[in-house]
Amino acid sequence: MALVVEHLSKKFGDHVAVEDLSFEIPKPGIFAFLGTNGAGKSTSIRMILNMLSKDSGTVMWNGEPLDVMKEKIGYLAEERGLYPKYNILEQMQYFGAIKGMKKRDANAAIDYLFARLKIEEYKKKKADQLSKGNQQKVQLAAALLSNPEIIILDEPLSGLDPVNADLFKSIIREERDAGKYIIMSSHQMETIEEFCEDLVLLHHGRVVMDGNLNEIKRQRGRENLTVKADRPIGDIAARCGLTLVEETPNGSSFKVKSEADANAMLSEMISQNIGVIKFDLREPTLHELFVEKCGGEANED
User: Fold this and answer.
1) Can you name the CATH fold of 222-282?
2) For all residues of the chain together, what is the average pLDDT?
3) According to the model, what pLDDT value does residue 301 have?
4) Which part of the chain is CATH 3.30.70?
5) What is the DSSP pairing of strand 224-229 with strand 276-282?
6) How far apart are CA 188 and CA 286, in angstroms?
C-alpha cells in the first residue's frame, strides 16, 4: 500500500493557497508535513481528507482515489473540537457510529484508549469540565477509535505538559509500530526529528524542501560549529574564515565553509593552550533548515 498525493493545488480568489503539492508515503511510518503559519498545511490536509475541494490534483491510496467514507482514517485537527455541553462517552460512541462501528466494538475501543490515556474518570463528564490537555486526550482517542490505517496528526503535542507529551509520543510510536501511515504536522522541530524520516516543507503554498531528512542533512555536510573555551576565540575564528552566528552562555556558534577550516581553528586553539570546553561540528538541525528555507516568516494561518 501507499498514500500518493500528486499535483494538489488550491486558490482562493487570486490567492494561491497550495501550488502543485506532491509527496508519497510508500510504506508505514511517520511523514512530516511542515510549514510556516499560513503556508497551506491545513488547506492541504483538508483537501486530502476531501473536506475542501481541490482545484487540481489527486490523492491515491493503494492505487485508487482515496475514499474517506470507505477507508479508516483518523484525524486529530489543530482546531480542537468537542461538543462542550455533551457527555464525553456519548460523544465517543457517536464518533464510533459515524465510523460504522458497532456499539460494543466502540465501547471496547473507548475502554482501551481511555485507560491508555489515563482519562477513564472523565467518561461521564461534559467536555467543558475537562482541562485543555484532557480534551486533547479525548480527541486523540477519537482519532484512533476505529483503528485507522491512515492517521493525520496536526500539532498533536501543542499545549501538553512534558508528562503528557511523552504519553502521546509513546502512543504515536505504538501506532507506527503497528504499521500505520501517519502524517504529522508540527512546529516542534525536535519532535519531527525524533519521529520522521521523510518530509515536505511548504512556504507560501509551495514546496521548498522535501525528501529524506538524513539525506538532506548529509548533502549539506557539517557546516555548523559550536565552541566554548576558557578564553575569547573571536580573533582565531576570523583568521580561520569562520562566520559568527551568535554567542550564548553555552558557547559561540559559527558557520564554516569546510571541515578543514574548523580543524584549523581547533589546531590553533590547542597551540595557544586555550582550554577547549566544547567543540561541536555538526550537520544543520531541522530548525535551522526550516528557518533558512522559510526566512523566519510567521503569518496567520
Assistant:
1) Alpha-Beta Plaits (3.30.70)
2) 93
3) 43
4) 222-282
5) antiparallel
6) 10
SS3 state of residue 64: strand
CATH 3.40.50.300 domain position(s) in the chain: 3-217
pLDDT at 41: 93
Compute the distance between CA of residue 188 and CA of residue 158 in angstroms, rounded to an integer: 9
Residue with the three cell numbers 482519562: 119
Q: 3-217, what's its fold?
A: Rossmann fold (3.40.50)
Question: How many CB atoms are closer than 10 A to CB 10?
Answer: 22
Helix/strand/coil for 8: strand
Contact partners, residue 68, CB within 8 Å, separation at least 6: 49, 50
Please report which confidence band the pLDDT of residue 78 belongs to, taking 50, 70 and 90 as the band edges: confident
Task: Give DSSP secondary structure letters for 101-151.
Answer: --HHHHHHHHHHHHHHTT-GGGTTSBGGGS-HHHHHHHHHHHHHTT--SEE
161: cell is 505538559
Q: What average pLDDT does range 53-63 have in this prediction? A: 96
Amino acid identity for residue 126 in this structure: K
Higher-pLDDT residue of 81, 234: 234
Quote the cell numbers at residue 7.
499535483
SS3 content of the chain, % helix, strand, coil (to 5): 35, 30, 35
State pLDDT tens for residues 171-211.
999 999 999 999 999 999 999 999 999 999 999 999 999 99
